[in-house]
Amino acid sequence: MMAASPSAAGGFAISGLSVRKSEEIADLIDLFSKTQYRAKEVTPRVEMMEKRCLELFARDYKYSIISNSNGEVCGHYPRQIVFLEYESTEVDRDRFESTVQITKLQDLVNRSKMARCRGRFVCPVILYNGKHICRSATLAGWGELYGRTGYNYIFSGGSDDTWTESEEVPEDDGAVRNGESQLFDKVRGHDIKLLRYLSVRYICDLMVENKKVKFGLNVTSSEKVDKAQRYADFTLLSVPYPGCEFFKDYKDKDYTAEGLVFNWNQDYVDAPLTIPVRFTQNLNIDWTQYQVSSPHALLWSGFSCLSFL
After folding, report:
1. Residue 257, by phi and psi: left (phi above 0), alpha (psi -120 to 50) or beta?
2. Superkingdom of this entry's organism (predicted)?
3. I need a labelling partner for 285 at 20 to 30 A (CA). Which of 52, 156, 185, 296 fits?
């Protein structure tokens, strides 16, 4: 009968732990790639993940929470949306001083969410050298905007904030266009207030089109083609990157990306690559090759990426 030495036993234990961790990570990635998150449909497994995420954030950061307990702010964002305040150190680990008024931030979020597709408002997700990188959906088009505000108005008993300051219902075409402009002014105005409160200066738009069209209707838009130039005070970068166009094909191929190469010559692809020269002049990159696809097209969710630099 042979017995393993203590060092060998320790090696086996470490090896076993590593294998288990690898399996857990693979299982988590598989769940992430095949399951859509909904804040209203939380399972015990998701609750465990949420708790673990907060524990991991707490190791390195001081943070505040934007409440989204039942998905009332956004049904696709976590129930507890983490706002990273600053990196923590051993010295201040037990002390916390917020850098924002979280109640004001929550109010701005509630007011601005209608401006973005599916209510996916501008949300900080990464803190780097004291600067936040945020994510959001693209701007909502008039179809979604009217649909959502009308829905909220009906189910709020006629007290929805989006409509409380509206004028009487317009009748002629000119008045309709004017009323539409006023609604965009108000809703996108709240979006801009949130951007400014978060000190956002640069907006990176990843849409491959200027406006997404479905059944002949503009369902989403982007800051770069806002007719009223409401986002003119921000530096806009147009960086077309395909992604959501492949979601259905990706699922139909049993979540295998092989062969999913984007066709840049399609009629609806009309967004140009536009990056200010001051960002590119020292990078030594041939930007004319940015449309050359790799064998496996990367999947991306087609959102605007915003950073306060």
Report:
1. alpha
2. Eukaryota
3. 296
